[in-house]
Design brief:
The protein is of the alpha+beta class. About 45% of the residues lie in helices and about 20% in strands. It has 9 helices and 10 strands. The strands form 3 sheets. It has a 5-stranded antiparallel β-sheet with strand order 1-2-3-5-4, with helices on one face. Strands 6-8-9 form a 3-stranded antiparallel β-sheet. A hairpin with a 5-residue loop joins strand 8 and strand 9. The radius of gyration is 18 Å and the shape is globular.
C-alpha cells in the first residue's frame, strides 16, 4: 500500500482505487463508527464526496475504506498558483455554499457539539458560562456543516471537479459557525490574507454580515481549545477574549 498521509493517530493509504484510513489502537471504536456514519449520511445528500465502501479491521486496527479520488488538494493549487488565489477561493466558498444548501436531519446538532466542546475547553467557569449563554442565544439552523472545511480537504480531479473529504466533524447547524471556524483555521495557520479574502467572499455570496460571523469567533475558538493543543492555546485565547466579559 502507498502511504498518502501519516498522522499521530491515523494513517491513510492508497490501494488501487480505494483510500484506506487506518486508526491507532487508542482511537475509540465509537468515534470511528461515527465518522463512517457521517460519511454515509452526507453521501445520501448527493454531494460529490468519495463513497464509503467498508469499515473493517486490518492487523487489529480499525480502518475506513472509501473511493480514492485522483487529484490535487485545493490547498496545494492555491500555494502553487498564487495569481489564481481569488478564483480558487471563489470555488471554495461556492462549494461550502452548496454543502450548506443540503439537509441531513440525523447528523449531530452543531450547538450540542459546541456546548460539549466548551465544557471541555479548560477555560474558567465564568468564561464558559458566558460562552454557553452566547451560543444558546445564536439562531438555530439545520444546514449541513463540514466542521473542518479547509482547502486541504478539497480534492480537485483532472476534470476540475471538486470532492470534499474528511467528514468526521460533520454536523447540522448554523453555516456561519462553520465559516467562523474556516476563518480561524486560516488565521491559525498564518494565512491572514487568505482568511480575509475568504470571509469577504463568504459574506458576499451568502448575504451575511461580517459582524454576524464574528459573533461566532469566540465560541468556535473555545470549542477548538477542547483539543488542548498547547501550540494553539495562546492564539485561541485571544479570540475567546475578543468580547469583554461582564
Amino acid at each position: 500500500m502507498e502511504p498518502l498521509l501519516e498522522g499521530m493517530e491515523k494513517t491513510s493509504y492508497r490501494e488501487g482505487n480505494t483510500r484506506i484510513k487506518i486508526f491507532g489502537r487508542d482511537y475509540k471504536k465509537s468515534d470511528i463508527l461515527n465518522e463512517a456514519l457521517n460519511q454515509a449520511r452526507v453521501e445520501e445528500t448527493g454531494l460529490r464526496i468519495p463513497k464509503l465502501l467498508e469499515v473493517k479491521k486490518i492487523e487489529g486496527k480499525w480502518a475506513i475504506v472509501t473511493e480514492f479520488v485522483e487529484g490535487e488538494t485545493l490547498q496545494s493549487l492555491m500555494e502553487l498558483h498564487p495569481e489564481q488565489l481569488e478564483n480558487y477561493m471563489e470555488q471554495f466558498v461556492l462549494l461550502q455554499k452548496e454543502i450548506q444548501s443540503k439537509r441531513s436531519p440525523l447528523l449531530t446538532n452543531l450547538k450540542d457539539k459546541m456546548n460539549r466542546k466548551i465544557s471541555q475547553s479548560g477555560l474558567d467557569a465564568t468564561i464558559r458560562y458566558d460562552l454557553h449563554t452566547r451560543l444558546n442565544a445564536m439562531p438555530d439552523h439545520i444546514k449541513v456543516c463540514h466542521g473542518d472545511f479547509n482547502p486541504s480537504n478539497v480534492i480537485v480531479d483532472k476534470d476540475g471537479r471538486l470532492y470534499v473529504i474528511d467528514w468526521s466533524h460533520a454536523t447540522q447547524g448554523n453555516g456561519s459557525a462553520d465559516a467562523a471556524r474556516t476563518y480561524l483555521m486560516f488565521r491559525l495557520n498564518g494565512k491572514a490574507e487568505w482568511a480575509e479574502m475568504y470571509l469577504k467572499l463568504f459574506c458576499d455570496m451568502n448575504d451575511v454580515a461580517k459582524q454576524y460571523v464574528s459573533q461566532w469567533m469566540p465560541i468556535v475558538a473555545a470549542s477548538q481549545m477542547a483539543k488542548h493543543n498547547p501550540q494553539e492555546r495562546e492564539f485561541l485565547m485571544r479570540w475567546v477574549n475578543v468580547f469583554d466579559y461582564q
